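task queued by scheduler; priority normal; single chain, no ligands, no partner chains; default sampling; output format set to structure tokens
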Amino acid sequence: MKPTEITFQKLNHFWLDSGLLGLAVMLKEVDSSIKKNLNDKGLTLIGIESEIQKAIEKAYDLLIGRYYNTSKKKQIDDTSSYNFYYDSKEDKFVAFPKKKSVGIAELIYNKAPRPIGSSVKWQRGEKREIQINGKFIKRNRGILPPSHAHLQKMMDEFLDRNGLDVTTSGLLVDGANEIRPNVNIVAKVSDNVKGNCYLCGENSSHFEEISQTTFPFITGSSGLLNFNTMCGKPERVCWKCAFIGKFVPVNGFYIMQGDNIFAFFPYSVSFEKMLDV
């Protein structure tokens, strides 16, 4: 099978180049057979399409776990605020701390966590008094529907033992809540060109609505209408630009003063020098 080349250009744009650097750094940690050629023009991935796709997906998983789907020390220490889900393969309940993106990642994607598995809606809710550290405390409890009633006793014992409260509209199944910006990874070459990207100018067959997750200073597709003198449809960006914008936190660092964030991004016209910083 003939190898495919997927190239991410260096655009001389501090934000997107920081994202490209972040992708290159994350890919270094991915065990893959693909070749990664990096120079001052950008990053080129060479290999079988399916292998390139897998490598990019793994890099994104690493990014999410390290920069977006994170828990502060206070959230980890406060075990009474943990949520939980049912693992059907292991037949057990698993508790997990609250999640929140912070710093530069929060600038890009500041939304509540979403279930990565499925959910079973409670048949009804009720309050019960349970004893925690010698004190009786009221806790919310969910009553499972008939389809999952066989799990009720095990779930109640798990919640009472850990002093947890029910805060969701249903039982999470096979996965916790996770903070994960949606991405569209299309690691293949296509002749079905549909236009040019608003940010990089490249021909592309796959486009997305431009949003704050691509570049925070753009409020969204409606914000671009102010610059659309021909009154046409809002501009769109290729999947590559939309994707690398999520990796910016890898290159940047920040400090917080109250509610204010001060972000810094090491930058050079040389992509290789940026990688060495």
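post-processing summary
- Confidence is low (pLDDT under 50) at residues 225-231.
- The CA atoms of residues 124 and 133 lie 28 Å apart.
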